[in-house]
Amino acid sequence: MSYARRLAAERRLVHSRTRLPPTRAVPILSSNHKTAVSINLPVRNCRPTRRCMAACYACEGPISWRNSIRKALEVDAALRKGEIEGLIWECRMLQGVRLCGSGDMTLDHVPAVLKLAEACPDTTFWGFTRRREVAEAVNGRQANLTLIVTFDATSPEGGLQGYEGPLAFGPRTPRDKVPDDKRIMVVFPEHHAGHTIPNVPAHPKDCPATRGMDRRHACQRCRRCWRPHDALDRKEG
């Protein structure tokens, strides 16, 4: 499935008379082979680059199936309305929850996500966004909540000027050079279905799950992206 087809499928379901009310998405969390659990959102929230669209992991495998898309739309609507009681119940006993397992957050989601982190102080909420303004609205508000801003070789120049938070670089193709930027916490070689594409040079900051680590719940064992501000502070110190 291409990014355009995924987006079209979301738009069809939004207007479908058969879709369930937003609060009926139970369980709300999605299982994820790599991150264990995640809050998945629709790609219509995304601000993708050309590279991001071409390598979109929300467009392949079970996460791209009709029921998964429907669920992402329902979870999206519930967060926008602040209806998070069920989500709090599911998250409160977990060590970590990946935000934006698919899709992206917008500023409309920020109030609900801040309340969720506050209600689950023992759970680390972490994830990635292409929206700088969302990361700036979230980071530093709750100790257990962080978003890393992702960019790639096709991102607009100057978009991260003055931004002081953690970054991720990717998806990276064989011809892309990783910028020399201390804010970069992790690099993602382009990968599909868990397999890195050939000939992408290794980099010290590569995500371990793309370079041979057992992918099953790899993020819970690595945790590099869980509290990236701590690592950034150590570098600056």
Q: What do these coordinates show?
A:
The chain has 237 residues and is α/β, with parallel strands linked by helices. It has one domain (3-9, 25-236). The chain has eight helices and nine strands. It has helices spanning 3-14, 50-54, 66-81, 85-91, 110-119, 132-138, 218-222, 228-236, and strands at residues 30-32, 36-39, 96-99, 124-129, 145-151, 167-172, 184-189, 191-192, 195-196. A seven-stranded mixed β-sheet has the order 1-2-3-4-5-6-7. A two-stranded antiparallel sheet has the order 8-9. It starts with a helix and ends with a helix.
Topology:
Blueprint: H1 3-14, E1 30-32, E2 36-39, H2 50-54, H3 66-81, H4 85-91, E3 96-99, H5 110-119, E4 124-129, H6 132-138, E5 145-151, E6 167-172, E7 184-189, E8 191-192, E9 195-196, H7 218-222, H8 228-236
Parallel strand pairs: 2-3, 3-4, 4-5, 5-6, 6-7
Antiparallel strand pairs: 1-2, 8-9
Mean pLDDT, all residues: 92
How many domains make up the coordinates? 1
- The H/E string reads HEEHHHEHEHEEEEEHH
* Major pleated sheet: 7 strands, mixed
Q: Nearest-angstrom radius of gyration?
A: 17 Å
Annotation field: number of helices: 8
Helix share, percent: 25-40%
What's the assembly state of these chains?
single chain
| pLDDT < 50 stretches | none
Structural class: alpha/beta
Q: Strand percentage, roughly?
A: 15-25%
CA distance, first residue to last residue: 45 Å
- Give me the side-by-side strand order of the main sheet: 1-2-3-4-5-6-7
Which overall shape is indicated by the principal axes computed on the Cα atoms? Answer: globular
Tell how many strands the DSSP assignment holds: 9
